[in-house]
Write a structure and sequence with these properties.
- The structure is a single chain.
- By secondary structure, the chain is mainly α.
- The protein has one domain.
- The chain has helices at 16-38, 45-73, 75-93, 99-102, and strands at residues 2-3, 9-10.
- A two-stranded antiparallel sheet has the order 1-2.
- A hairpin with a 5-residue loop joins β1 (2-3) and β2 (9-10).
- α1 packs antiparallel against α2 (45-73) and α2 (45-73) runs antiparallel to α3 (75-93).
- The protein starts with a strand and ends in a 12-residue tail after the last helix.
Amino acid sequence: MIRLKSGKVVNLNENFDQFFHELQSEIISQSVETAHTMCDSKNDREKYQSVLLKEIMDNSIYVTHQIFELAAINKNMSKFLVTGFLFNSIVLAMPDLSEKDQKDLPPVDDHTLH
């Protein structure tokens, strides 16, 4: 299990996509809730965004420490989590491929590795 700063628990799940989505959603919702509590998003948008980003970073650091602790118990699970986070970060950062870009790609075969 992974615990956020607020105490909210996200259970580990062997389905990485489901786990990643739940963890990401909880970090965002808990960070938004804290930012709303600390400042008025309507009156001071810049401060709200700053607090929100700080909360997201703090939760990310908090989760990362737990993944390193998990490595002492289950090294393969911690490697899997770190690899999955890196993969998802890269995929989320990629711009959508347009049809023009896709015509330059080789055809997709039925042997997908993921």
